[in-house]
Structure formats: structure tokens, C-alpha cells
Amino acid sequence: MPEQLTVYNPATGEAIESIPQQTAEDVEKAIERSHKAFQSWSKTSAGERASLLKKWYELIVENKEELAELITKENGKPYEEAVGEVLYGAGYIEWFAEEAKRIYGRTVPAPTTGKRIVVTRQAVGPVAAITPWNFPNAMITRKAAPALAAGCTFIIKPAEDTPLSAYALARLAFEAGIPEDVLQVVIGDGAEIGNVFTSSPKIRKITFTGSTPVGKILMKNSADTVKHMSMELGGHAPLIVDEDADLDLAVAQTMASKFRNAGQTCVCANRLIVHESVKDEFAKKLSEEAAKLKVGNGLEKGVNVGPVINKKGFDKIVGQINDAVEKGAKVLTGGTYDQNDEKGCYFVTPTVLSNVDTSMNIMHEETFGPVAPIVTFSDIDEAIKLANDTPFGLAAYFFTENYRRGIYISEQLEYGIIGWNDGGPSAVQAPFGGMKESGIGREGGTEGIEPYLETKYMSIGL
Ligand code: ADP
């Protein structure tokens, strides 16, 4: 592994910064520091942790422009979206600063009059986090905030493509007064650092956002030390447009869900399942809107869709488009791209495909790109069956104006997050997370602090 990691802007190919990478030995030392710091951090009062987190939140909001520019430079997403990410991510810190004060226990009626039973909650211990590049800022705060609020210490290994936001967040945390050993950043090879985390008995919890195959490796490798696990893995979101849907609303929300971050989020609508009676109108409106999106460098004004992160991501997207077209899909808009291997810059034009069917890879794999495939249905149970026909279960969307139909669909969908007439259901106040192979555990809401807490009970004899 080289000593330095150079971070490149995916929109221009320019090097942004070179930073030192950590070896396995460095990471072991970081774990030691985290373990030692846990002894004091876990004993601080909830009020103290809350006020430090609140200060961190305020510093992030004060520095939102600088943080957003960094996100756009290392990830490529348009600047306005990056500001949105910073504020969304900061919202988790504010939320968990408040939740720190509400880590309640219970007293339970004992089996005899001569006993009392008291249930308390305490921090699980040092936590290691591994995060992806698609939200270089918010995927860190969503994990660090509940961990710190609960009294855990925290080590973060950000994605190789986007480590600079992690450092920027950590600097502000230290400025807020959070001790340096309580929140550490390590940079380097995912598998190597992942193995140090999973094999250490001192790390009591792994929290991961990323691909399902890597999540499975982390779970297997954590078995020997029986760690707590939170896994936020892949998605393959269906979006159902029923015959009575408000089509203008459905188009607007599909645009927001599908093309945000150039389609590179785990909750992006991945399969548009549209009633045959409204398909032509929906497809026409969606294609017209998609064609209006401006692709380019996210730091330029008016750009709606930035580059895709790297060649691996680009090859997958283009492979799915080509496979679909070879098997009979029709390109309604887009289908083109701008590839510069020398600079490492890849842009995909927002694409809408019709005549899609289940023989095509795009119906079985997460796309992670700005491509919207449309399939049709005639009976709602057929649409639900198709929607659930995947090992994933993160987010699902549907559009109907009929409440009986809506309740029925929502109860049949095997997904952790449901957007009914809503393409952007994610919120700090809500428990984000998936079913099936999309993961374990929830982030946000009152549930979000649970994975960082142990339960202990004491039986007192009188
Ligand atoms: P993607 O394919 O979208 O980059 P990954 O799951 O490969 O998703 O990456 C998400 C995060 O997981 C990154 O921080 C990456 O460094 C890390 N990672 C990749 N491989 C491993 C591994 N074998 N063990 C632990 N972490 C890994």
C-alpha cells in the first residue's frame, strides 16, 4: 500500500490533495487509544456529551459552504445537493445530542416482594465504522452522532474516493471540544483495515454502509468476537405508479428520487413499475424532465447531474444500458455518455428506458447511475410481486390517490422504508434501514441510538 492516498476530483480529474494512509499497525494503535478513551468518555454525563455534540453541529452549520464544496470536489454531486447533504448530516448530530439525554432505563415488577429489578442502558464500547463515497459527510455523522451520544468512542474508515470530508468533520469535532481519541479517522485499504477492526476484541461494534458483499464479509469476520453489527447495504428500489396516481406528482418525485447524486444512492428508484394505462403519459413526461437536466461539474451553476464516481461504477451503468438495449429496451432519452479514461472522468446522460423486462440485468442489479427503466403491469398484485422479487429490501415507493389501495400496497411491500406519494422519505427523525439483504439495524429516529447501547439489569435482594 502506498504511503499517500491522492484524492481526485471525478469531474475534472485534478488531484485535490494527498493524505497519509495508515498501516494495520497504525490502526491497532488507534484501537488502543479508542479503548482507553472509552473508559473516560463513557463516564461523562449525558448533558456534557449533548453540549459537545450541539457545538459540533453548530460548527458544521457555520462551515456548510466549505464542507459542501469539499463534497462536490471529491464526490462530484452538484453544490446545492452537497449543501443539502451537510445540513442533513448535521441534523443527525443535533438530533442525537438531544437523544443523549433520553437514554432511559426501567424498573420492572420483581417476582417476589423481597427483590427489585432495575434495567439500565450503557454504551456498547469502542465502535468502528466503514462508510461509502456517495454521502461522504452524512454517512459519517449518522453513525458518529448516536455512537458519541451513547458514550461510545468511534473510529471511522471513510471510502478511499472521498476521505477528505471525514477529516474536515473530525477537525470541527475537535474544535467543538470532542477529545481526539474519542473520534478518530483512519485511511487506507478497506479489506486490510476491515480485518483489523473485525479481529480486535476491543472493537465491540461494527457499523457499515456499503455493498452487500462487503457487509457479508464483515459479518462473517466479526463472528469470532461476537460483535454488535449495524449494516446498511445495497438497495434495488421499486417505484410503482398505479392507474389512479397523480402523474405530475409521480414524475416530480421520481425525478428527485432517481437522479439525485447522479442516481448513486442506495434508495434511488431503480425499477419504475408503471400501470399500462398511464405508462405512455408517465414515460413521456419523465423523459421530457430528464432531458432538461444539465450534466457537468457540480461546482458550475445550473448543473443538476455530476459525474459518476469512477470507472467501475461507470462500466456497470453502461453495461446495464447496453444489455437492456440488446434485449429490446427502447431509449426514450439519454443513453449517451462522456468517457475520459485518461483523466478518470465519467458522465452519463440521464436515461429513460421503456420496453424493459425481467430478462435484463437492470431489473436484477442495483444500477447506481442515472438510468430509469420502465416496466408495465396490469394488476397491482403483479406489481407487488415484481417489487418484492429481489433479495434487497431497503426503500420502495408507490403513487396512488386511493387510500385503501395505498394501505394494501404498503403492507405487502417487504421494505424498511416506504415512500407513498413521496420520493424523498429520508429524515433525521425516522429510522432509516432495510429488510432482507439490505441490512440490519436502523439509523435515525429514536431507534438510531439503540444499536450503540447494551442492556444490563440488576436484581437487588432486600
Ligand atoms: P462500493 O462498491 O460502492 O465502493 P464497497 O462496499 O466496496 O462499496 O465500499 C464501501 C466501503 O467499504 C468503503 O469504505 C471501502 O473501502 C470498504 N471496503 C471495501 N472492501 C472491504 C472489505 N473487504 N472489508 C472492509 N471494508 C471494505
Average residue-wise pLDDT:
98
CATH-wise, what's the superfamily of the largest domain? Aldehyde Dehydrogenase, Chain A, domain 1
Helix content: 25-40%
User: What is the correct CATH architecture of the largest domain?
Assistant: 3-Layer(aba) Sandwich
Helical/strand content category: alpha/beta
Radius of gyration from the alpha-carbon trace, in angstroms: 23 Å
Separate helix tally: 13
Sheet with most strands: strand arrangement: 12-15-16-11-10-18-19
Major beta sheet, specifics?
Answer: 7 strands, mixed
**Alpha carbon gap, first and last residue:** 61 Å
Strand content: 15-25%
Q: How many structural domains in the coordinates?
A: 2
Describe the 3D structure:
It contains 13 helices and 22 strands. The chain is of the alpha/beta class and 462 residues long. It folds into two domains: 4-233 and 438-461, Aldehyde Dehydrogenase, Chain A, domain 1 (3-Layer(aba) Sandwich); 237-427, 3-Layer(aba) Sandwich (Aldehyde Dehydrogenase, Chain A, domain 2), CATH 3.40.309. The strands form six sheets. The protein has a seven-stranded mixed sheet with strand order 12-15-16-11-10-18-19, sandwiched between helices. A six-stranded mixed sheet has the order 7-6-5-8-9-21, sandwiched between helices. It has a three-stranded antiparallel sheet with strand order 3-4-22, with no helix packed on it. The N and C termini lie far apart (61 Å). It binds adenosine-5'-diphosphate. Adenosine-5'-diphosphate (ADP) is lined by residues 130-132, 157, 159-160, 190-191, 194, 210-211, 214, 217-218. It comes from Bacillus amyloliquefaciens (strain ATCC 23350 / DSM 7 / BCRC 11601 / CCUG 28519 / NBRC 15535 / NRRL B-14393 / F). The active site is at residues 232, 266. Belongs to the aldehyde dehydrogenase family.
